[in-house]
Design brief:
The complex is a heterodimer of chains A (288) and B (200). Chain A is α+β, with helices and mostly antiparallel strands and 288 residues long. Chain A has eight helices and seven strands; from the N terminus they run αββαβαβαβαααββα. In chain A, the strands form three sheets. In chain A, strands 4-3-5 form a three-stranded antiparallel sheet. In chain A, strands 1-2 form a two-stranded antiparallel sheet. In chain A, strands 6-7 form a two-stranded antiparallel ribbon. In chain A, strand 1 and strand 2 form a beta hairpin. In chain A, helix 2 packs across helix 8 and helix 7 crosses helix 8. The radius of gyration of chain A is 26 Å and the shape is flat. By secondary structure, chain B is mostly helical. In chain B, the strands form two sheets. Chain B has a two-stranded parallel sheet with strand order 1-4. A two-stranded antiparallel sheet of chain B has the order 2-3. In chain B, a hairpin with a 2-residue loop joins strand 2 and strand 3. The longest helix of chain B has 21 residues. Classes of the chains: A alpha+beta (288), B mainly alpha (200).
């Protein structure tokens, strides 16, 4: 060991460099991440989970859900839609502009609002929108995210650091044997569906390789009054999934917490660092 | 046997690799790679800004792609703010509360051509007599809108002026800004007289 000291120094240096790169640098970059405000709103995002959902994260972790499910939506790009919302008073002037280069078809007031261009860049969309405004009409430019995950309907935008603010530990996942769950609460927001699916996944997705989590449910004798939280099993399901007469299937606390956690996964609000145009409720004029 | 070590040692001494300088192209290649790396870093790193994620390359691009809120989005935002800030007294449908808050739906103050009155009331508060739809009201209102930003208050007022059958025109954040400067530091408006005085 005549070089013991130099080996020691070299080891400290190497570990120190990787610690700086993989621990210190991310903490400096994202360590003070805070709640933010949604686009076009004063609502804070993300709000803390309910107690049940916070406990559910630990059930998710204990059952190894992250071995087959990711919680990270990817995005390859972004694009714009150009939507004409009003033809204005002098519609012939606008029709001229539209017929010139923007729209292939003749627009009438009944068609509105109409998407006349899809998948264009922000630059082109803004200049077209300006032309329409100059001709007295009104147009809106809607931004949306693109990419395979978005097309699958798994989410509306990419995942960003804020989405994981209340996750401890973060359940990113690396394998996609099942679908991504970052936005599952918005996609499949029915508590009953989530419980039924945990109980018998194959009844919803034919050939699903997801193991049934039936041990998160208990079979118990029906009391004088059936339990309020008993699992509603559709009568069409096979006999071995039905409880025997006089019995009922009831989700355990773990199952309820896990379902609450799944419903709390809603990484879909538009943020400044992952922008898109949210769908807006119909204008107030129509609600009259 | 005895020759071999000798040959090796002579080889070592005269090894051509020992004294040769590194070829210049290695330095050139290293510099080109360094330059290329720098350009790539400049374009795609976002300078390690925690707000910039791919596919966005930098903050400028991120700003350019922020959705510009259309009229519908402004109205939806205004509705939401109205229901949390104003709706408790003036009701979600703008009908007001007897003895407490006059109606906004169909009110001549809300539908007035100039939006100045309906902007200055939430910014400065109002106490004293005011006639709304043929009734005399003598209630007082705190400066509920003073805490909202110009664009937020503009959204609320635009929503009020275009909803429930009201036929006013929407209000721009700049209108609110101008009135905010006008009423700054003044006591709450004293009824209709105060509103008239403010117009001057």
């Amino acid at each position: 060991m005549k070089n013991g000291f130099s080996i020691f120094i070299a080891a400290v240096l190497l570990l120190g460099i990787s610690w700086c790169a993989f621990v210190l640098a991310p903490v400096i970059q994202l360590g003070d991440e805070k709640q933010t405000v949604m686009i076009n709103s004063t609502d804070i995002y993300p709000v803390q989970r309910t107690g049940a959902a916070t406990l559910g994260l630990q059930v998710y972790r204990a059952n190894g859900c992250a071995a087959c499910h990711t919680e990270q939506i990817q995005q390859n790009g972004m694009a714009c839609d150009l939507i004409v919302t009003s033809l204005g008073k002098n519609s012939s002037a606008l029709q001229k502009v539209l017929a010139g280069s923007l729209s292939d078809s003749f627009l009438t007031t009944n068609d509105l609002p109409k998407t006349i261009r899809h998948g264009i860049s922000m630059e082109i969309a803004s200049s077209m929108s300006d032309k329409i405004t100059a001709a007295g009409g009104k147009a809106e430019v809607h931004v949306y995210a693109t990419g395979a995950d978005i097309e699958r309907g798994w989410g509306l935008r990419r995942s960003v650091a804020e989405d994981f603010l209340w996750d401890s530990p973060v359940q990113l996942g690396a394998n996609r044997i099942g679908p991504d769950l970052a936005d599952v609460g918005a996609r499949l927001g029915d508590l009953n569906w989530q419980l039924q699916h945990l109980y018998a996944p194959q009844m919803f997705v034919k050939g699903s390789v997801m193991p049934p989590f039936r041990y998160l449910f208990v079979k118990q004798k029906k009391g004088a009054v059936p339990s309020a939280d008993a699992l509603q099993i559709p009568p069409g399901w096979p006999k071995d999934l039905q409880p025997p007469g006089g019995y009922e299937i009831v989700p355990t606390e773990d199952a309820k917490n896990l379902a609450a956690y799944l419903l709390s996964l809603r990484a879909e609000v538009p943020l400044h660092d992952a922008p898109y145009t949210p769908a807006v409720a119909a204008p107030t004029e129509k609600s009259k | 046997m005895s020759d071999e070590p000798k040959t090796i040692s002579t080889n070592e001494q005269t090894s051509p690799a020992e004294r040769k300088t590194a070829p210049i192209w290695i330095f050139a290649l290293a510099l080109i790679l360094l330059f290329g790396g720098g350009v790539y870093f400049d374009q795609y790193s976002g300078w390690f800004n925690p707000q910039v994620y791919s596919p966005y390359e930098n903050t400028d691009q991120l700003e350019a792609w922020q959705p510009k809120s259309g009229e519908a989005a402004v109205m939806a935002h205004g509705k939401q703010l109205y229901e949390s800030v104003c709706g408790t007294c003036h009701n979600a449908d703008g009908s007001g509360k007897p003895g407490q808050a006059p109606p906004l739906a169909g009110s001549e103050w809300v539908n007035a051509k100039s939006p100045n009155d309906v902007i200055s009331i939430p910014l400065d508060g109002l106490s004293g007599e005011i006639h709304v739809k043929g009734e005399t009201w003598n209630a007082s209102m705190a400066a509920m809108g003073a805490g909202l930003s110009d664009s937020d208050l503009a959204a609320v007022i635009s929503y009020v002026r275009t909803s429930w059958g009201n036929k006013g025109k929407p209000v721009m954040p700049d209108d609110v800004k101008a009135i905010r400067a006008k009423v700054a530091g003044k006591p709450p408006i004293n009824g209709e007289q105060g509103l008239k005085a403010l117009e001057k």
